Amino acid sequence: MKNKGSLREKEKLISEIVEISHLIYQKGFVSATDGKISARLENGNIICTPTSISKGELKKSQIVEVDPEGNLVYGIYKPSTEIKMHLFIYKQRKDINAIVHAHPPFATAFATAALSLEGFTLPEVIINLGKIPLAKYATPSTDEVPLSIQPFIENCDAFLLQNHGAVTLGTNLKDAYFKMEKLEHYAMVVLLARILGGEKNLSNEDLKKLSDISLKIYGKKIKI
Ligand SMILES: [Zn+2]
Fold first, then answer.
1. Are 34 and 26 in contact (CB under 8 A)?
2. Catalytic site residues?
C-alpha cells in the first residue's frame, strides 16, 4: 500500500511540475531552456526538470529523479548543474518540499542592477515572502552558487540571484510557484513606483501590527 501511495504521490508531483513549467514559460518567466523546478519525494529523493529542454515543451516522460546527493536515479535526460543549488536548499530546509528557479524579467532586472527587494512595502508580499534579499553573483554551475545563497536559506523563501534570476521555496509546488508569481508582480510594482517618485516602506509600528495579524490569522510570524 505504501508503494502505491508513493507512486501516486510521484505521479501527482510530475504532473504539477509539467503544469508549472508550461505556466512559467507562457508567462515569460523563462526563455528557451532556462529555469529549474523541483520537488522532494517522501523518500527524500528529488524529481526535477531536465537540462536543455524548454519549459514550454516539457513532457512528463522527461522528468528526472535524483537522490539527495544528486546521483541520477531515473531519467532519460540529465538534471542540469543547477540542481546543486536545489539540493543544497533541501538539505538545510526540512520544511521546504519544492523550489522554482526562473528568470522573470522584472525581478531579474533588479538582480541585474544589483538591487534587492528588501523594503517592506506591500502587506501581502511581506506576509507571504518576507524579506527578499540579493545573493551575490556566483558563476553558474559552480560551488559558488550554494555559497552565495547560504546566508539567506534559513530565513528567506524568496531571493534574487545577482546577474542571474530568482529562486522561491515552498512547502509544495503550488506554494513555490505562487511565490515566484508574487515576487515578479512585486518587482514590477516597485519599478513602477520608482518612476512615480519611489515606494514608501511601512513603518516599524505598521510592521508590528502586520506581524500580530499574520500570527493570529495564518499562525506565522512575518520574517523581518
Ligand atoms: Zn538560471
1. no
2. 82
Ligand 1 centre to CA of 90 (Å) is 17
Residue 1 has pLDDT above 50, yes or no: no
Q: What is the mean pLDDT of residues 44-63?
A: 96
Q: Is residue 223 part of a domain?
A: no
Is pTM beyond 0.90? Reply is yes
Alpha carbon of 33 to ligand 1 centroid (Å)? 9
**How many whole angstroms from 140 Cα to the centroid of ligand 1?**
8
Q: What is the pLDDT of residues 112-163, one digit of tens each?
A: 999 999 999 999 999 999 889 999 999 987 889 889 999 999 999 999 999 9
Q: Please report, for the domain that includes residue 14, its CATH number.
A: 3.40.225.10
Query: Got the DSSP string for the chain?
Result: -HHHHHHHHHHHHHHHHHHHHHHHHHTTSS-TT--EEEEE-TTS-EEEPPTT--TTT--GGG-EEE-TT--EEE-SS---TTHHHHHHHHHH-TT--EEEEE--HHHHHHHHTT--B-S---HHHHHHH--B-EEPP--TTSTHHHHHHHHHHTT-SEEEETTTEEEEEESSHHHHHHHHHHHHHHHHHHHHHHHTT---PPPHHHHHHHHHHHHHHHS-----
CA of 34 to the centre of ligand 1 (A): 6
For residue 224, tell me if it sits in a domain: no
Domain count of the fold of the chain: 1
